[in-house]
């Protein structure tokens, strides 16, 4: 009975934050971004939260290690055909730039790390495949009435730091380590509008003409992305949900 109450409370807390993310302060994410695309760009980019990942050769890396570079933090899983298609887009874009200051981290935190490592050669490309580090659970599943509504990526302190509502999902991080945009679903990274926008972030053009106005980021979402310990609700979500979950 106690476990059931705990599970219900966890689900309710996850529902609450999910509702806040999209309706708590009006429209959180605007339609800004490269013209003619559905990227969501923030007017006041929050800092990207750090967390650990493991490369397929066993190296532990931190997201913070890539500060000073433009990073596309891409979340994917094996049962997502669009994720495979997007990797082709990443390859074409990276080869076009041929610039070490832009990195693509394809993070699979859902499937067994041994599967990710075994199948890494299938995804050979100029991007980096990473999985969860140290065998710890890195995501919290948001299940409401038997239906998965999305996931929260949690850090080593069990704080919810990124939301993934579908696959693939990508967070765009600038050289200052700020989340400047998000995209859910298959994105066409190699089309001219997106390439110009990324070039602006790299400082290769600096015109800014390829980007439409973005949207303000409410402080509560700023705290979520920043992994701020003051956001008690994110701590409670992570601790309740992780308490109900085993590897």
UniProtKB/TrEMBL annotation:
Q: By its UniProt entry, which InterPro entries does this protein fall under? A: AhpC/TSA, Thioredoxin-like_sf, Thioredoxin_domain, Thioredoxin_ResA/DsbE_sf
* Gene Ontology molecular-function annotations: antioxidant activity; oxidoreductase activity
- A Pfam family per the record: AhpC-TSA
Q: Which domain of life is it from?
A: Bacteria
Q: Where is the Thioredoxin domain?
A: 42-203
| Full protein name | TlpA family protein disulfide reductase
Species of origin: Desulfomonile tiedjei
Q: Tell me the classification of the organism that encodes this protein.
A: Bacteria, Pseudomonadati, Thermodesulfobacteriota, Desulfomonilia, Desulfomonilales
């Amino acid at each position: 009975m106690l476990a059931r109450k705990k599970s219900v409370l966890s689900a309710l807390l996850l529902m609450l934050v999910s509702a806040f993310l999209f309706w708590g302060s009006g429209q959180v994410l605007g339609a800004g971004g490269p013209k003619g695309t559905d990227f969501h760009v923030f007017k006041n980019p929050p800092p990207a939260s750090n967390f650990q990942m493991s490369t397929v050769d066993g190296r532990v890396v931190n997201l913070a290690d890539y500060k000073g570079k433009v990073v596309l933090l891409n979340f994917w899983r094996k049962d997502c055909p669009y994720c495979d298609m997007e990797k082709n887009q990443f390859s074409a874009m990276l080869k076009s730039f041929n610039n070490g200051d832009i990195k693509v981290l394809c993070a699979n935190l859902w499937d067994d790390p041994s599967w990710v490592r075994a199948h890494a050669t299938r995804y050979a490309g100029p991007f980096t495949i990473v999985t969860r580090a140290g065998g710890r659970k890195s995501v919290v599943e948001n299940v409401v009435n038997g239906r998965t509504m999305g996931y929260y990526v949690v850090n080593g302190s069990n704080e919810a730091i990124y939301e993934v509502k579908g696959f693939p999902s990508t967070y765009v991080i600038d050289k200052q380590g700020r989340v400047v945009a998000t995209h859910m679903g298959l994105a066409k990274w190699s089309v001219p509008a997106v390439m110009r926008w990324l070039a602006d972030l790299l400082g290769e053009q600096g015109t800014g003409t390829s980007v439409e106005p973005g949207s303000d980021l409410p402080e509560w979402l700023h705290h979520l992305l920043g992994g701020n310990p003051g956001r008690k609700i994110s701590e409670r979500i992570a601790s309740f949900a992780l308490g109900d979950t085993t590897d």
